[in-house]
């Protein structure tokens, strides 16, 4: 069965009249939307970074802040929405600026839990850049906690992963945390 046919079945199970005008194209649209929200499965790190790695003597912290993020929690397939802050300490190579956001996007566009998303982004930036350290902080609000379940509207979840110098050197870590706060 195609994704579209599954959505027809879901609508029927929910008690909808799939023949009514407003729903005629809904299974097709919903399938397309869900494929878009999960498009990260078709991407690879090589593809999204596209070799945009440049030699640089700069070893100072590079920070890309406030990268907006839309993902789906793997437990309920409901959105979680927030921001990612990604920093690294170059060790001879810097990554094209947009590629940091593309890496975030590739992992966010999959079914996720926030902790694993944070870790996957950090590991990917580390792998691509060979950096002396990588730090990722994600702050997000989970619709599964807001629209349903415990229904807490103002809570957000903050996760972080620190690698290399960000883990080992408290001064580097506090510089980063000061910059994203
Ligand atoms: N750690 C973590 N938990 C998440 C994330 N997204 C959703 N969850 C949680 O996954 C858990 C699943 O718990 P279950 O008890 O199996 O599911 P549930 O009955 O729908 O839980 P409630 O949300 O409490 O109603 C819930 O506590 C969610 O809040 C995430 O990114 N990270
Ligand atoms: Zn959830």
From TrEMBL:
PROSITE patterns in the cross-refs: GTP_CYCLOHYDROL_1_1, GTP_CYCLOHYDROL_1_2
EC number: 3.5.4.16
Superkingdom of this protein's organism: Bacteria
Domain annotation GTP cyclohydrolase I: ranges: 4-180
Catalytically driven reaction(s): GTP + H2O = 7,8-dihydroneopterin 3'-triphosphate + formate + H(+)
SUPFAM superfamilies assigned: Tetrahydrobiopterin biosynthesis enzymes-like
The entry's keywords: GTP-binding, Hydrolase, Metal-binding, Nucleotide-binding, One-carbon metabolism, Zinc
PANTHER family on file: GTP CYCLOHYDROLASE 1, GTP CYCLOHYDROLASE I
Membership in a protein family: Belongs to the GTP cyclohydrolase I family.
Official protein name in the record: GTP cyclohydrolase 1
């Amino acid at each position: 069965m195609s994704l579209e046919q599954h959505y027809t079945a879901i609508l029927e199970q929910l008690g909808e009249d799939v023949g009514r005008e407003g729903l005629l194209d809904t299974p097709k649209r919903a399938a397309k939307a869900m494929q878009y929200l999960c498009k990260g499965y078709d991407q690879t790190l090589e593809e999204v970074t596209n070799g945009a790695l440049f030699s640089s003597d700069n070893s100072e912290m590079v920070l890309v802040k406030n990268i907006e993020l839309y993902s789906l929690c793997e437990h309920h397939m409901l959105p979680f929405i927030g921001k990612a802050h990604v920093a690294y300490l170059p060790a001879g190579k810097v990554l094209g600026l947009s590629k940091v956001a593309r890496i975030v996007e590739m992992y966010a566009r999959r079914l996720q839990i926030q902790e694993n998303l944070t870790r996957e982004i950090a590991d990917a930036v580390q792998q691509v850049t060979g950096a002396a350290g990588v730090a990722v902080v994600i702050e997000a609000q989970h619709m599964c906690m807001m629209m349903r379940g415990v229904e807490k509207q103002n809570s957000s979840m903050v996760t972080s992963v620190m690698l290399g110098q960000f883990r080992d050197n408290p001064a580097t870590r506090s510089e980063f945390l000061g910059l994203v706060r």
